[in-house]
Design a protein that fits this description.
Elements: H1 3-21, H2 27-34, H3 42-50, H4 58-65, H5 70-74, H6 80-83, H7 86-104, H8 107-110, H9 113-126, H10 135-141, H11 149-174, H12 179-187, H13 195-202, H14 206-218, H15 230-246, H16 249-254, H17 256-275
Helix pairs in contact: 1-11, 1-17, 2-7, 9-11, 9-17, 10-11, 11-15, 12-14
């Protein structure tokens, strides 16, 4: 694996991914899904993210989402599919994305040549993504590409995010980390969303969180204060390196110059989203 593959691909991912993930905090998405009859909160999240898979059961959602409590998933899936259809959900999500980006980026940015350029670069990167052993990516890859550049960029950002995400889950499994253990270890870096957000959105109790932290302490990955040990830091680094290797193809295909340009453009758009409050600070503190 080259230095370019490890560092530049991850850097580009970090610039592009917020263009996808901002929608989870957007009222437009919740409003569109609630209008279909779905409960706000967890049901909207599970249905919205799982819809490309079709009307799957809780087992498929737990498997592909990895760090969500299965008992929590079962409260909302497959019940969501008795309220509406995956096709209706997909259309509602896209309407929510459109509303969010128009509000937070503005029409001038949406209509800019830079937006069209970024969409083209991101879509070109997805040409090298692999469907094998990547169920969430493969499901999204079967959806049509929207015509509007800002929606095409969001679609491409989603593909790149889920492609890397599916590979990351494989790396977590290799590391022997359960879903909740991966969350606790990530939270210990101080760069992750708050533990309260993780527990609330993924259905874990404080007791389950403490048990997972104790298990990580027994493995020598955390100390008694809940901080990463040297072994924990090493394991996280190895996991990220393996994730980089599994996700190198899109950026190898794009090439260094185009990858740098996509990073620049997407980073600018993501920065505008952050400045507009797309990621509530209350969820991303220590």
């Amino acid at each position: 694996m080259t230095t370019f593959q490890a560092s530049t691909g991850r850097h580009c991912h970090n610039a592009v991914s917020p263009l996808h993930s901002a929608v989870y905090f957007a009222p437009e998405r919740q409003d569109e899904l609630a209008a279909l009859g779905l409960e706000r909160g967890a049901m909207c999240y599970y249905a919205g993210r799982a819809a490309p898979l079709g009307a799957v059961g809780a087992g498929a959602v737990t498997a592909t989402f990895y760090n969500f409590n299965h008992e929590h998933v079962k409260r909302y899936i497959p019940a969501a599919w008795t309220v509406t259809t995956p096709e209706a959900v997909l259309a509602a999500v896209l309407r929510g994305v459109d509303g969010m980006l128009r509000r937070q980026l503005g029409q001038e940015i949406l209509a800019s040549k830079e937006m069209a350029e970024a969409a083209g670069l991101a879509l070109r990167a997805t040409e090298a993504c692999h469907r094998e052993a990547r169920p969430l990516y493969a499901a999204h890859a079967g959806l049509p590409v929207p015509e509007e550049p800002h929606l095409a960029l969001w679609h491409a950002a989603t593909l790149l995010r889920e492609h890397r995400g599916d590979g990351h889950l494989a790396a977590l499994a290799v590391a022997g980390l359960s879903g909740i253990e991966a969350l606790v270890l990530h939270n210990a870096t101080g760069t992750a969303p708050t533990s309260a957000l993780f527990m609330r959105t993924r259905g874990w109790s404080a007791q389950q969180w403490d048990t997972a932290r104790h298990q990580l302490c027994e493995r020598g990955l955390l100390n008694e204060a809940g901080d990463l040990t040297e072994s924990g830091t090493t394991l996280r680094g190895e996991t990220e390196v393996l994730t980089d290797r599994l996700d190198a193809a899109p950026y190898d295909h794009l090439g260094p110059a185009a990858t740098a340009r996509l990073t620049e453009l997407a980073g600018g758009f993501s920065g505008t989203l952050r400045a507009a409050g797309a990621f509530p600070a209350v969820h991303f503190g220590s």
